[in-house]
Amino acid sequence: MRKLLDALYDGAAWLAALFMIGVLLMVLLSIVSRLLHFHVPGTDAYAGYAMAGAGFLALAHTLKRNEHIRVTLILGKLRGKAKRALELWSLSAAVLLAGLFAFYSVRLAWQSHQFHDISTSNDATPLWIPQIMMAVGTAVLFIAFIDEWVLELRGQRHNNEGQETHHE
Question: What is the mean pLDDT of residues 94-99?
């Protein structure tokens, strides 16, 4: 199961990287088209869709690599059962919020598909297409938070809170 979950997180991260390449391509296409005096409609919109896709798809991988920003002001002062209780409470809240975020993201994409919503820009993209990446990203984040919650419950979760990265 661990290999499957890690593959899911890594797959979402690779997809996020591809979307970042998509952002780059849209920006380059926009620049080149202006320099050569032709217009490609929708490049700004597609760059935005790709950026949103990259951001949402990278969430779970970032969480699992301990790269999310955590406020450990109180947590750093606690030890033993109190620290574990606060971790479980925090992860429970995160599971709930991520679950709600995933549910409503999936629902939004589904409703956009049902109602044939299209973007207001001149490209008239069906909105469910870019919204799918938000739905997938939030669903994978929800799974990652459940994973973290279960690991904490079993006492197998590794926190690198003392290994903060310092940039000079």
Answer: 97
Q: What is the per-residue pLDDT for 166?
A: 38
In this structure, are residues 95 and 146 in contact, taking their beta carbons and an 8 Å threshold?
yes
Three state DSSP letters for 20-88: HHHHHHHHHHHHHHHHCCCCCCCHHHHHHHHHHHHHHHCHHHHHHCCCCCCCCCCHHHCCHHHHHHHHH
Distances 109 to 42, 67, 103, 112, 135 between C-alpha atoms, Å: 20, 28, 10, 5, 7
**CA nearest neighbour of 61 among 145, 135, 132, 152:** 145
pTM for this prediction: 0.86
Domain ranges of the chain: 2-154
CA 159 vs CA 89, 140, 163: distances in Å: 16, 20, 9
